[in-house]
Amino acid sequence: MNYYDKIAQIYDQTRWLTEPVAEEVADFILELVCAIPETSFLEPGVGTGLNVLPFVRRGYSVTGIDISEEMLEQFRQKFNEIPPNLKLIHTDASHLPFPDNSFDVVLTVHMVHTVSDWKAFLDDINRVLKPRGFYLNCQWITPPVRKEFEDYFRAILAKYQGYKQKSKRINAAIQEINVEEYFHSKGCKSNYFVAKEWTVKNTVRELLGFFRARAYGLCWQVPDEIFHKIMNELEEFCIQHYKSLEEVLSSEAKFEIWAYRVV
């Protein structure tokens, strides 16, 4: 069982992209790619479908692939029956099992760093895109107060032997990925957009609950006995720092898109 299988049932409620926000992002993307009714979409790492659900509901052809069957099942449960314009494939999203020139739009959302060979993955994306197609490399920017909360967790976690070095290796691997340089080398034009900004609000108690449920990858990097100690320390810190676990933390999130047009 992989990490995403473990968190599938709580994934949507512990993230900050809501369905109404996703609808507005979809409006932006459809205009960006000059979509027509026949426009086809692929999302490797589709998960619970948060990013592409609006396209499915509007009748566009959508294909999603994911390594987590549990995440895909959460996506399926959003429909009374799977619509004919949605195809879900349970496989490793870093290998795209499609012929050349299959899709008008490929989008990934904060997932390129998860594949073992990112250049081969981008080669595959470039291969399955139709001429003049779009690759949209997207991410939800973590709201600052959530990032601050995560940093408090990391600060406690870093006191335990071995975590700090592991974290540095992961960060270094992410920094080595240069999607922009890759697509420019292919002659593609690129543009950067903020598709949507919105306010995210959570109480301190809610954020503690998300971490206790291990909703995020960094929560699975330590053994259970250490994790529970860290969470107890984090709760004590929060009581002192925020004064109340009912304190509402509010800040802005962003949906960013780096758009590449295939020549």
Give the secondary structure arrangement, pairings included.
Blueprint: H1 3-7, H2 11-14, H3 19-32, E1 40-44, H4 53-57, E2 61-66, H5 69-76, E3 86-90, E4 103-109, H6 118-128, E5 129-141, H7 144-157, H8 163-175, H9 179-185, E6 189-203, H10 204-212, H11 224-242, E7 248-261
Keywords for this structure?
263 residues, alpha/beta, seven-stranded mixed β-sheet, 11 helices, 7 strands, 25% strand
How is this structure best described in words?
The protein has 263 residues and is of the alpha/beta class. Helices cover 41% and strands 25% of the residues. It has 11 helices and 7 strands. The protein has a 7-stranded mixed beta sheet with strand order 3-2-1-4-5-7-6, sandwiched between helices. It is globular.
Q: Could you provide a short overview of the structure?
A:
This protein has eleven helices and seven strands.
Run of helices and strands: HHHEHEHEEHEHHHEHHE
State the secondary-structure class. Answer: alpha/beta
Q: Number of helical segments?
A: 11
- In this structure, how is the largest beta sheet organized? 7 strands, mixed
Seen as an oligomer or otherwise, the chain set is single chain
Q: Give the helix proportion (percent range).
A: 40-55%
Overall geometry:
globular
The counted number of beta strands is: 7
